[in-house]
Design a protein that fits this description.
Blueprint (H helix, E strand, L loop, with lengths): L1 H28 L9 E7 L3 E5 L2 E5 L3 E8 L6 E3 L6 E4 L3 E5 L6 E4 L5 E2 L5 E2 L5 E7 L6 E7 L6 E2 L6 E7 L32 E8 L5 E10 L4 E8 L17 E9 L6 E4 L2 E3 L20 E5 L11 E8 L2 E5 L10 E3 L5 E4 L12 E5 L7 E6 L5 E3 L8 E3 L11 E4 L2 E3 L5 E3 L12 E7 L5 E8 L4 E6 L4 E7 L1 E3 L7 E4 L2 E3 L8 E3 L8 E4 L1 E3 L5 H33 L4
Parallel strand pairs: 14-30
Antiparallel strand pairs: 1-4, 2-3, 5-42, 6-41, 7-8, 7-11, 7-37, 9-10, 11-12, 11-36, 13-34, 14-33, 15-16, 16-17, 17-18, 18-19, 18-20, 20-28, 21-26, 22-23, 22-27, 24-25, 25-26, 29-30, 31-32, 34-35, 35-36, 37-40, 38-39
Helix pairs in contact: 1-2
């Protein structure tokens, strides 16, 4: 009977609209839920019933049913927070989470994460965020997707491998000592190991050993000529742990060399370095002079680098009947190579072991020597200064040892480097020789000590970096994002979580900002995408629809009552 069918049509409308109101209520109740995606419903009519008419067979509808309920994955607006681990996705994609205690993966748009007491990055329900571990040096992904967990809250120290020391050396400076290395005394009897009167300028830079302790590297400078400066690289003698150096005058003396400058431009044109062989570090030079003649004797070192010997040499210069004789009991130097002026008041000695007299190494000025009188002096030191070569980077290296282990290899960079062919090419910032006071223009050294984790930052490509108290910013992890071919096929699990199904297809994971995946907005949370105004309009139309379907039932009931009352 048509009237009874109308009752069931009204019932289908009430049932369907009741379900619609439930969806609207769910949307409105989650208007403040982080990352919530609202649902949308659609209706469809039921299978129609055929009935006979004067014009033939026709169809009469039997009511309505819920056609579809879909999730709306449109972007929600962002809310700024003060938490660095609050993350929002700008664009497509889901965070990938692992349920604690299992290997099952879930997906979410809610990025309200935090670190738990075990160092895992988790959501409020304890699901662990997934990502790639990053190589500390290159920042590239390492291995497969894994838990984001901080298993170390310290940054290990890194020993220094280079010091950069850019100076301007005063072109008007006057040499303070014949040889810098000869003025150094690191045996502990002198404090400081070199007097300020023995050099023109000094500059200090810090380096780190492998344990993260800091040490001062001091470079001393002194002019040798109008275009050449000598320099000496040193450390605190008490910190010098090189084998065989402790307690000697050479303790703390690491390297020496020369810098050559253009007299016209003041820029560096050449650089040399020598390193001290630990096999021969007795003492660089001592000298004494006994009285000779009425005016005494003074020793002047003309070429102090050549005044060295492997063993102690006690030398005496004797005036015998019109000529000078050099007496060398150790036979380290030849007896030739002595030149005196006309009145024998000045004597030049060449200590070249070849016996030649091409270089005057020592000059004695004497006053009126008498026959048989002698000037005695002693030399002790080492010839074990080795000429250094530049490394593959074009820099000279010195090798301090502060902890008694493997010596460090530290590049010395004064703003110039070997181009590989023995020519030194200056950087834009380089050591110079100008007519102004000697000063340090720039200094730096790499390496760092141990540091504690102070915070974590995340950038737009999902890279999570640790900020440490030693100034290091190290890449830790990159968060994983996932997308699906059919987002509508995802199954809601509650707690802002989705689970993949056969209908959704397998998750396609990738880095944020690649392959159609969105980017990460740190310090932000994605708000619910519920449009409350739209929901209220739906609520009104649903309510009115429910009322109308209720009227269908009451009116049909009245019609049935009239039908029953036909028979009294």
């Amino acid at each position: 009977m048509a009237l009874s069918s109308a009752l069931f049509s009204g019932i289908s409308g009430l049932s369907t609209l009741g379900n619609a109101m439930q969806i609207i209520g769910d949307n409105i109740s989650n208007v403040n839920t982080v990352g919530f995606k609202s649902s949308r419903f659609t209706f469809q009519d039921l299978l129609s019933q055929s009935t006979a008419t004067m014009s033939g067979t026709a169809q009469v509808g039997r009511g309505t049913a819920m056609g579809d309920i879909t999730s709306l994955f449109q972007q929600g607006s962002f809310e700024s927070t003060g938490n660095t681990t609050d993350l929002a996705i700008g664009g497509d994609g889901f965070f990938q989470l692992r349920e604690s205690g299992s290997n099952e993966l879930f997906y979410s748009r809610a990025g309200n994460f935090r670190f738990d007491n075990d160092g895992y990055l988790v959501n409020p329900e304890g699901y662990v965020v997934q990502g790639w571990e990053l190589d500390e040096d290159t920042g590239q992904d390492v291995g497969s997707v894994t838990d984001v967990v901080l298993d170390s809250f310290t940054s290990p120290p890194q020993e220094s491998t280079q010091v950069e020391l850019i100076t301007n050396l005063n072109s008007d400076a006057v040499s303070q000592t014949a040889l810098l290395s000869n003025a150094w005394n690191g045996d502990g009897s002198s404090d400081p190991p070199i007097a300020a009167s023995n050099y023109d300028y000094q500059s200090t830079v810090k380096v780190y050993d492998s344990l993260g302790d800091t040490h001062d590297i001091t470079v001393y400078y002194d002019p040798r000529s109008s275009s050449t400066w000598e320099y000496m690289v040193t450390c605190n003698p008490s910190e010098d742990s090189r084998s065989g150096f402790a307690g000697t005058s050479s303790a703390g003396l690491l390297a020496r060399g020369e810098m050559t400058f253009s007299q016209s431009s003041g820029t560096m044109t050449d650089l040399t370095m020598e390193t001290l062989d630990p096999a021969g570090h007795e003492h660089q030079l001592t000298k004494t002079a006994d009285s000779i003649g009425g005016g005494g004797a003074t020793i002047t070192l003309n070429n102090p680098q050549a005044v060295t010997t492997d063993t102690t040499a006690d030398l005496s210069l004797t005036w015998n009947a019109g000529s000078w004789t050099l007496n060398d009991p150790n036979s380290d130097y030849p007896n030739g190579g002595i030149v005196s002026n006309g009145d024998n008041t000045e004597v030049s000695i060449c200590l070249d072991t070849s016996g030649g007299n091409n270089t005057e190494d020592i000059t004695l000025t004497c006053g009126g020597a008498a026959n048989g009188e002698a000037a005695s002096f002693s030399l002790s030191g080492t010839a074990n200064w080795n000429t250094a070569s530049t490394n593959a980077n074009g820099y000279y290296e010195f090798t301090p040892d502060f902890i008694g282990g493997e010596p460090m290899a530290v590049e010395f960079n004064p703003g110039t480097q070997d181009d590989g062919g023995g020519n030194f090419v200056n950087d834009s910032l380089t050591t110079t020789q100008f007519a102004s006071a000697s000063t340090t223009t720039f200094q730096a050294g790499n390496g760092y000590g141990a540091g504690d984790l102070q915070g974590v930052d995340v950038d737009v490509d999902g890279v999570m970096t640790g900020i440490y108290s030693n100034g290091q910013i190290l890449p830790l992890y990159r968060t994983t994002l996932a997308k699906f071919q059919n987002e509508q096929g995802l199954h809601k699990e509650g707690g802002n979580l989705f689970r993949e199904t056969r209908e959704s297809g397998d998750a396609i994971t990738g880095q944020p900002g690649t392959n159609g995946l969105g980017s990460i907005a740190p310090n932000s949370l994605e708000q619910s995408n519920v449009d409350i105004a739209n929901e209220f309009v739906k609520m009104i139309t649903t309510q009115r629809g429910f009322q109308a379907n209720g009227k269908i039932i009451t009116v049909t009931d009245q019609m049935l009552a009239e039908l029953i009352n036909l028979k009294r």
